[in-house]
Design goal:
Helix content: 25-40%
Number of strands: 9
Shape: globular
Number of helices: 11
Distance between the termini: 27 Å
Radius of gyration: 30 Å
Strand order of the largest sheet: 1-9-6-2-5-3-4
Order of helices and strands: HHHHEEHEHEHEHHEEHEEH
Structural class: alpha/beta
Amino acid sequence: MADAKVIPFDDDRSRGNRRRTKAESAPAGEVQPLPLRGAAASEDAREDDPVTPPAAPGPQTAAGDDGDRDGAGDGGLERRVAAGLSFLRRRLTGDYEVDDFGYDAELTDQVLMSLLRPVYEKYFRVEVKGVENIPAEGGALIVANHSGTLPLDGLMMQVAVHDHHPADRHLRLLAADLVFVLPVVNELARKLGHTLACAEDAERLLAQGELVGVMPEGFKGIGKPFGERYKLQRFGRGGFVSTALRQRAPIVPCSIVGAEEIYPMIGNSKTLARLLGFPYFPLTPTFPWLGPLGAVPLPTKWTIQFGEPIPTDGYAPEAAEDPVLMFNLTDQVREQIQHTLYKLLVQRRSVFF
């Protein structure tokens, strides 16, 4: 936001009707001191002129005057315009980098996050807790609950990490096959750093020191009916635990409250789902009855809480093949997420506020 223009209270225009200065009333030939500046000059003027009341303290500016401030603003605008033109030039000439998974860091930071941020900050008004529990460096696996009919919770979790983590970390989400067969969605998901939810891709990212996000409930969680909201579904066969154990990466549980109510799913048209090739076809109080308007999510208030990490570097290398250990760790992560969900629901005042 541009700086407001401030006119100093001791500006020369406010002294036009005051009495003569010391220099004007001094005898001829007497040596006069150099004129004072700033606060000293104002104080001297008040001592010399009992009629003029003391001026209230005005706001201080680093630039020193309005001209400098305006110039700094213009310079800032020019820098932003130059940065924008440079970004467009790199896009047009192909002078930018993507990694092996298609992740475009510059496009994500400059464009995609800017598009998601208003939804995150203004629409869902997401509150983030425990982001300091995410390691500042090295690979880590964030495991979260999944809900909301459409996978907006993953995107909001990605913005939460991007904007609030003190080490400016980026979250790489593991997504279902369906995401990568849909036109447009496929390209955007790749640019955002998402990749296929398979052990091979997850291990590669963790080995590179990346922060990886997974939602083990999958379609069972995101497509569950409204009556089962905030009740975690089965976490698969514990494949995410095996991946973390192989890479000796900590597991960070994450609980998301607010996403369950954006599309209250009161029914599922299995016939339409089969025809369209979808795992489910949701029926909500507004969709499909209101057409495209019914696809607008309800503006619920969200809370995302990251729990304390569960270390895996203390286990032997062969622990990744131990089914009993995988089951126990999977159950530990699931129980921690479920317990935090219940705690956040008790603390919540309203679905919308």
